[in-house]
Amino acid sequence: xxxxxxxxxxxxxxxxxxxxxxxxxxxxxxxxxxxxxxxxxxxxxxxxxxxxxxxxxxxxxxxxxxxxxxxxxxxxxxxxxxxxxxxxxxxxxxxxxxxxxxxxxxxxxxxxxxxxxx
Length: 118
Ligand code: HEM
Hints:
Layout: H1 2-24, H2 36-58, H3 65-84, H4 93-112
Bound molecules: protoporphyrin IX containing FE.
Protoporphyrin IX containing FE is lined by residues 5, 9, 12-13, 16, 19, 42, 45-46, 49-50, 52-53, 56, 68, 71-72, 75, 78, 103, 106-107, 110-111, 116.
């Protein structure tokens, strides 16, 4: 089960890296868009995150539901905003900055809040 958790965590981190990479490659561009890296990254991080929770729940450890709840809510907001704007020719700077902030916030929750499972 731990091997499955680690594989899912790898996929989860690759998803987050693609989302963050898709955002940061545009930092100097005057016009921002939702590019395929952001779309696929947000989707992958979200689905792998859900699967991770499933594996943790199936395990014998205590799952930190408050932490997972916050990550789920932030992840869902990111996913909805990204999917709702994939076909737009450009997105407002504020939306780009908001997506970047939410993504970094979810990393901070993952790292600084006590482990998701004990
Ligand atoms: C774009 C949004 C997300 C980002 C940037 C993100 C980022 C991260 C990072 C960096 C870690 C590794 C932390 C560590 O190993 O200490 C992590 C772990 C984790 N994430 Fe996410 N995450 C996101 C969305 C989600 C969602 C939606 C869920 C599920 C509801 C979720 C559930 C988890 C769980 C359960 C772990 C811990 C896995 C373990 O320790 O076994 N994440 N996340």
